[in-house]
Design brief:
disordered N terminus
């Protein structure tokens, strides 16, 4: 029966068949397929990381784990500058021309070789001054070399596979590296004469070096060797990508050393444990963002409207996946102290506050990807750089009185602020393009 508007009723069988056919086509799309593989890889990697986290945090205790986590958090900021944005340049270049992979790979490795050594030296100077001068310099050295230099080789390899649409390669690299970390943690527990942050750093460094060698070998065997025609002219764009990554890393990592400075290494350890758990719960969101990133560059050439349209289509999925992570965090909250030990009882309340983080991450990351894909990397960097001072201010107000609970509340408020600002800028850019005239054909 046809209604007055001339359209068939929603229950009509033919229409239902069309809807099911469209659904099947969407489920067979490259994005969904890539996301499924990446989600599986991240889920396996998550399980292995939880094993490592439980072994290491439980063996170290809050104070020693707080020292290790605080040094690693600051090293992560320097690590994001390492490579001078070479992995992002690789994704952009190969996403537009598959044949440029050998040259893009060479450029990424060259930028890493030039940037990593001075960043390691800088970390050796800054990290002890920023956290606690009693922290052994060897601890800073081993973590810095591992995260600033060695782990970045694995990241470039993963970017190569991502750029050419081979998520299985990314899966092998990420899962293999996680398996190696589990074996290193088990060997450390069984063979190390003492279980403190420095002894774990030795094993952490050794397995990072092995992972870098294996990653480089696999990528060159399966995707080809780099062609050493370095695109030195890309250093400006690389610097913008590096600043963007550094600001993002600072936004996600600066709170741990700040908590250690404002309170104690024990409180920093409790907060770091809770933050690590909720970060793991956000794996589905990370899989979505990872799988869609190259697609943003492809549609971004048409301007903010096309890129924003893609982000809006992905937003409900991102929020749904974030909600799954939030529920998982709420379920894990009462179990965490039982797994890690009674000394980590403070993580329960912090996890309850941090539970919404995966949702906020999905919202603000999709909005910020619109900026990058339309050539506004500097604007995204400015927005992200503005957030760590907000986080530090909130920590300064809340941590001395409320400890790890105050740190968790500061993190949630900062992420909510970033989500609001990101989408306000996207709306402004879309409005500006609409005022300038119709967008070019996509």
């Amino acid at each position: 029966m046809i209604g007055k508007t001339g359209s068939p009723p929603l229950w009509q069988p033919g229409l239902r068949r069309i809807g099911l056919r469209q659904l099947r086509e969407r489920l067979r799309s490259p994005l969904v397929g890539s996301m499924s593989i990446i989600t599986s890889a991240m889920a396996v990697r998550l399980a292995l990381q939880v094993v490592v986290f439980a072994i290491v945090a439980g063996s170290l205790g809050p104070a020693q784990f707080g020292a290790f986590a605080s040094v690693a958090a600051l090293a992560a900021i320097f690590s994001s500058l390492s490579g001078w944005g070479g992995d992002q340049l690789l994704l952009r270049r190969v996403g537009r021309s598959r044949d440029d992979l050998p040259k893009a790979m060479a450029t990424a490795l060259a930028f890493l070789a030039l940037s990593a050594p001075p960043l390691v030296l800088l970390a050796m100077i800054v990290v002890p001054l920023a956290i606690d001068r009693s922290i052994p310099w060897q601890l800073v050295l081993f973590i810095s070399v591992s995260d600033i230099a060695l782990t970045q080789i694995n990241a470039i390899g993963a970017a190569c596979y991502q750029a050419v649409g081979r998520p299985m390669g990314t899966m092998r690299l990420s899962v293999g590296f996680a398996v190696a970390r589990v074996l290193a943690a088990l060997l450390w527990v069984a063979a190390a004469p003492r279980h403190d942050a420095l002894s774990w750093a030795h094993f952490y460094f050794a397995i990072s070096a092995l992972g870098a060698v294996v990653s480089a070998w696999r990528v060159m065997r399966e995707l080809g060797r780099p062609v050493w025609q370095i695109a030195w002219h890309e250093w400006r764009d690389g610097f913008q990508f590096a600043l963007q990554a550094a600001s993002q890393s600072a936004f996600g990592s600066i709170d741990r050393p700040v908590v250690a400075a404002l309170s104690s290494l024990s409180v920093a350890g409790l907060y770091a444990a809770a933050n690590r758990i909720v970060t793991a719960a956000g794996i589905p969101v990370n899989a979505l963002l990872w799988s869609a990133y190259v697609r943003f560059f492809q549609v971004g050439v048409s301007g903010p409207r096309a890129s924003a349209r893609l982000a809006v289509r992905l937003l409900p999925v991102g929020i749904g996946l974030g909600a799954v992570g939030a529920v998982a965090t709420l379920i894990l909250a009462p179990l965490a102290p039982r797994v890690l030990g009674h000394s980590y009882s403070g993580t329960h309340a912090a996890l309850l506050i941090l539970a919404p983080l995966p949702i906020f991450r999905a919202v603000h990351s999709l909005g910020l990807d619109v900026l990058v894909s339309t050539g506004r990397t500097a604007l995204r960097t400015v927005v992200q750089i503005a957030m760590p001072p907000v986080n530090i201010l909130l920590c300064w107000l809340l941590v001395p009185s409320y400890g790890e609970i105050g740190a968790a509340l500061a993190t949630v408020l900062t992420n909510a602020s970033l989500a609001t600002v990101a989408w306000a800028i996207v709306a402004m850019l879309v409005k500006r393009q609409r005022a300038q005239g119709p967008a070019p054909a996509e």
